[in-house]
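Fold sample X.
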Amino acid sequence: RALESDQPDDLIINIAIGRGDFDKARKMIDKLPDDSHKSQLIENVNAPEAIALAEKGDIDQAVRLAERLNRGTSILRVYPVLLKKCLSAENKWRATPLVYQAIKQLKKADTPLLTPSGIPPGLVVIKGPDPIPLSLSKLAKSVVEVDETLALAVLDETVIASNKSSMDSSEGRIGFDLDVFKQLAPKDEARVHLAAEDLTDHFRQIVALAAINQWKASELEKRSKADLARRKAR
């Protein structure tokens, strides 16, 4: 009954969004005054509708909605889905411009993602004033599943953003998702190593290089175990 009333209530709007009734949600949102709360609700509609359109194959409309996203969490949620849909032959040409559009939006995002993951034990990551490198590193990890060359380009953007950041690393602030170096190293170790060396902050550089060495040590251990198993089999 509440859905039929078209009254702009947050709970009902979210129920409509959850049911995929995006037109109903937009009609209710349109009745609200123009303020930050309305903008947030519009974002709440645009992100899931963009994903739904992408899943249906309507890439053009999905991209138009994605380009309106202002929050880092929304951008990181929607663009990986769009990129995966671009794996088909007729849409591969879209991948590169989509990645750079995502980078552009993340750099201007209102509330980028703030909580990193995959940090090795003993390292403390503290929330800082510049979450852009973190958002870009998260994007790189998502993009690698679609196109490793584009993921490496996003890694370069992450390093550039980190070097521009005013975040102080003296208390263990890294500012990006460290896993990105371990995840991309198998794709192009030399380039990822160079990206780590390009970090101007000494602490961040050491930690990034250590992450790459962690991956290398893990690979060596796997090979050693495989060789031992083969010798035993003989």
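Fold sample Y, listed below.
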Amino acid sequence: MKQNLFNKLWLRVGMIVAIMTTALTVSAAEEVYKTLTFCNAGTDINKTSSYTASWTETVGGFGWTISNFNNNNWGWTDGGNPALYLVKCGRKKGKSANTPSVATIVTNAAIDEAITKVEVTLTAISSNDYNSIKLYVASDNEFTENVTTINVSSIPSSAGKMTITVPEANRTANRYYKIEFDTK
């Protein structure tokens, strides 16, 4: 079985910063199959300073739609690796402060392999800022058919890897994946 990897989803004081990177050591039974990274950001492509924007990122010919994340016009980088750019969700400042927001990262095409899990690396997260974190798996891109909803039962309150395991019965090829962050 393959795993779908969201390898660095960076959370700061209730705001999500997503960096998907390419390398992770996994057990012999699994391998990283799809990744999302913002390494190629920092250009004029997909710049936004809004928490209500949507755009598409393409990595290795595979597309992902990012919705309700802010990339600060590609002004945020990972201090440990300035080639990696960050995105955030969850409004904390100005007139929209404390306004609920649901941010998503969605695969634009069905993944042609069975996926066992999605891994996300979190840093500086506050579980008090989230209503829920969910992974949806569906057979259609509208997420209306054969939908499996996997709730993160315990939203992390500290940095570390968050692994969302796809139930064995739902590990099927040709599925769409959506990770959803519902902020307070």
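Sample Y note: The CA atoms of residues 2 and 31 lie 5 Å apart.
Also: The two ends are 35 Å apart (CA to CA).
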